[in-house]
Amino acid sequence: MRNPMLGLGALILAAAAAAPAMADTLKEVTTHGIILVLGDMEIPVTYTPDGKLSAMDGQITGVWRIEGDKLCTSSTADPVDRCIAYPKDKKSGDTFELETEGGAVTIKIR
Q1: Biggest alpha carbon–alpha carbon distance for the chain
Q2: Looking at the DSSP assignment, which residues form a beta bridge with residue 79?
């Protein structure tokens, strides 16, 4: 059985060389936040301009940065620095899947 917290940590673990479309997706993600869907659980994740993140009503906290088309994060759920590539051209309201070390997860940009 996969550990859902590993998927959460890998995702939350979320740049100067970024391609504009990918940077736009990551700007949408970090500006509006996301809903991370793990099984039947929906977890809101909030990103602040100072590079901090929180999820699960503050039970999980961490940091984020953008490297190219990747959102790099580390958190109390997964302290390892992980970078995950996001698809280009996504905006607020869009839903898509990401492959993480813990398996596929669904992301909705708020």
Answers
A1: 38
A2: none
Instruction: Give me the long-range contacts of 25-30 (CB less than 8 A, separation at least 24).
Output: 25/69, 25/86, 25/87, 25/88, 25/89, 25/90, 25/91, 26/66, 26/69, 26/71, 26/86, 28/90, 28/91, 28/92, 28/94, 28/109, 29/71, 29/86, 29/90, 29/107, 29/109, 30/64, 30/66, 30/71
Q: Which of 52, 81, 53, 28 is nearest to 44 (CA)?
A: 53
Other Cβ atoms within 10 Å of 83 Cβ, number: 16
Each residue's pLDDT tens digit, 18-62: 334 455 999 999 999 999 998 899 999 999 999 999 999 999 999
The β-bridge partners of 88 are none
Give whole-number Cα distances, 104 to 15, 21, 63, 101, 107, in Å. 25, 22, 22, 8, 10
pTM of the model: 0.79
Q: Which CATH class is domain 4-109?
A: alpha beta
